[in-house]
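Good morning,

Attaching, inline, the backbone tokens for the sequence recovery test we're adding to the shared suite. The designed sequence is right after.
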């Protein structure tokens, strides 16, 4: 049978372990939680539950971005495109077409790294190089940034703000990069829309028109899902770009 001092020792060890686990969980949420504000203020959505922001990451992409422009124009809707710098340099004309069509272009870093593993110097270069590519393509620097995977540290946000970039996350993640099909994408979006409505906030839907490694990936399921969302939501919601919530 343990003697009292042994019991006390084990209790202290257990308490320290629990505190370490809790601290690790908090740090993980702060760095990766889409709606966390722990490391710095981040835009999620506006206070009008009748507003929806369609946002697309990892482009531009020859196979999907132009078709998205056609769909959005058909429904007189604007969207936000968080573009990767190296793709913008390769598809400068396409990036300019997105801007000319009235959509908002944001910074999604130059090569799509995990910024939680990037030094401050690497982080600054990733954001600066992407902004240079965007400005060369559209004639203006980006003012908004979405960090790849939503991953950030305190200095990630500080550096972004030093460069004139406001961080943006999401409150609906469509998981359209996974093989879940159009129905799976729409199920996730519908569930997110219901949550946003229950909370009385706007819906910031994160989808993907490109890929971190390839500008030619097939995003046909995202295109079909977008068309259905535009058809279904247009009578009930206003489509906005994220700067409407600044």
């Amino acid at each position: 049978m343990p003697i009292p001092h042994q019991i006390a020792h084990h209790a202290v060890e257990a308490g320290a372990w629990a505190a370490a686990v809790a601290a690790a969980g908090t740090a993980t949420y702060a760095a990766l939680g889409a709606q966390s504000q722990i490391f710095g203020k981040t835009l999620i959505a506006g206070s009008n539950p009748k507003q929806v922001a369609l946002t697309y990451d990892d482009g531009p992409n020859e196979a999907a971005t132009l078709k998205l422009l056609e769909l959005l124009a058909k429904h007189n809707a604007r969207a936000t495109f968080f573009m990767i710098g190296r793709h913008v340099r390769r598809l400068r004309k396409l990036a300019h077409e997105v801007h000319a069509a009235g959509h908002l272009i944001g910074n999604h870093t130059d090569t799509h790294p995990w910024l939680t593993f990037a030094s401050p110097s690497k982080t600054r270069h990733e954001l600066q190089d992407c902004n240079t590519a965007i400005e060369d393509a559209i004639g203006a620097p980006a003012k908004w940034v979405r960090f790849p995977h939503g991953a950030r540290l305190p200095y990630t946000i500080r550096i972004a703000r030093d460069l004139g970039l406001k961080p943006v996350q999401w409150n609906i993640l469509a998981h359209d990069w996974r093989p879940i099909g159009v129905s799976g994408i729409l199920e996730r979006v519908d569930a997110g829309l219901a949550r946003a409505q229950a909370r009385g906030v706007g819906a910031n839907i994160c989808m993907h028109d490109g890929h971190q490694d390839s500008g030619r990936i097939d995003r046909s399921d995202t295109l079909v899902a977008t068309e259905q969302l535009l058809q279904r939501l247009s009578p009930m919601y206003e489509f906005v770009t994220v700067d409407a919530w600044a």
